[in-house]
Write a structure and sequence with these properties.
Two copies of one chain form a homodimer.
Chain A (H helix, E strand, L loop, with lengths): L3 E6 L3 H11 L5 E7 L2 H11 L3 E4 L9 H11 L4 E6 L4 H9 L4 E4 L4 H12 L7 H12 L10 H10 L5 H8 L3 H15 L4 H11 L15
Parallel strand pairs in A: 1-2, 1-3, 3-4, 4-5
Chain A binds a DNA duplex (30 and 30 nucleotides) through helix 7 and helix 9.
Chain lengths: ~220, ~220
DNA sequence: CCGGGGCTCCCCCGTTCGGGGGAAGAAAAA
DNA sequence: TTTTTCTTCCCCCGAACGGGGGAGCCCCGG
């Protein structure tokens, strides 16, 4: 039986290299490629022909791990995606599974779980980290992430909200009237079933719509 | 010359195991121990007698990597601490260096940088990730993180803010009047030189005062 | 063709925020 | 000791916010 062709997608190159070293210490696993972004992974995917793609959810740049998972599955249905992430947030895990991931392992899990997930994925078996499988399934049952219900414009406004801007500032940034922004904010809160913009910001961050690192603090010296 | 005695402190056990595999592939490095928390590392430190402690900043539990670094240095001055973290936020890096770390490497750096930092630390040399060394130095010059200027009570309020609560809700949670909360919020914004509570929330998250994972979304159907 | 959704803008209204001021007690620092 | 800081609470006021309504425009799908 041939070795499991594995690809690593993680923007943390130190971690990526370490994972490669770890996985290759097992004779049944072969690391045939690695990428630091979803874009890079997709470019090279057809050249690698992997059985398993180990995907980090949290990545900088335009494409996050969820979107990357979706496209990997579309481009190469044979390749199974195992999500390996530090994320403890159920919402994003659920989104990843919806996007076509077959396995999910947290970085703080026992390494044996990770190995099992990779080997399982190669056989088409789903291995979910037991630490969160329960709550994730609950999430799946009770409906998907509400962000996806947001229109593009509403996501724009939500991103602006996450920068701590007022309606007026958002109006200027997006070149619309303050009234329009009010409408969007109202619709966002309504769709997300929240009541304050502060909650919307936390929600945006949890969903990965914006990254904390992307936010330059305004209005302070420094 | 004997091998560099190294200890890994990272709550991500998958990553920790992978790093061990990676480091041990080099003949001059020996991994003599590993811990998933600052507490565990300190307990076993004197048994390990490491030359280098590789420390992740972001860890759950009572002690974070910064406090752990401080105590490692106090308990075993021979052991040099290299911070290895996904954190892209300067503030916490500066805090870690203040706490006595000699090296700092981001997880998305070139693995070579990490190796250099470990080997340098063993010789007492400081290796700072060039990707951020500049901005970190600026931070050091312009003074420490503003959070430290906040009183305990103000941090309590800031944590509440991060949950998207209104002044009234915070008042109930902390068992004080709404007026008191208003005072605290005002002082927080003033001290942090911000103008909206939403910005304060982002600030709290960036500083690690609260973790995104700690925040249970309220006010939505779930 | 007509309906629905998205984007834009406007009105009104009550609530929440943020900033200004002051004040009292307790605890810690000078 | 005096002084400062922290914590608590109160006042007033203007600005910002959230919810409700309506309206016109465009585009896509039935």
């Amino acid at each position: 039986m041939s070795r499991i062709r594995t690809v690593l997608v993680d923007d943390h190159r130190v971690v990526q290299t370490a994972l490669r070293s770890y996985l290759e210490s097992f004779p049944d696993i072969e690391v045939v490629g690695a990428a630091v972004s979803g874009e890079e992974a997709l470019e090279k995917l057809e050249g690698w022909l992997p059985d398993v793609v180990v995907m980090d959810l949290r990545m900088p740049g335009g494409m996050d791990g969820i979107e990357a998972t979706r496209r990997v599955r579309a481009l190469s249905p044979h390749s199974q995606v195992v999500v390996l992430t530090a994320d403890t947030d159920d919402a994003r895990v659920v989104a990843a599974l919806r996007a076509g991931a077959i396995g999910y392992v947290r970085k703080d899990s026992d390494p044996e779980v990770f190995l099992t997930a990779v080997r399982g994925a190669a056989r088409g078996q789903s291995v979910l980290d037991p630490a969160v499988a329960g709550s994730v399934l609950q999430d799946l049952l009770r409906g998907g992430p509400l962000v996806e219900e947001l229109s593009e414009r509403e996501k724009d406004v939500l991103r602006q909200l996450a920068h701590g801007r007022t309606n007026r500032e958002i109006a200027q940034a997006l070149h619309v009237s303050e009234e329009t922004v009010k409408t969007h904010v109202g619709n966002i809160l309504s769709k997300l079933q929240l009541s304050h913009r502060t909650q919307a910001v936390v929600y945006a961050l949890k969903q990965g719509l914006v990254s904390l690192e992307d936010i330059e603090m305004e209005g302070r010296g420094g």
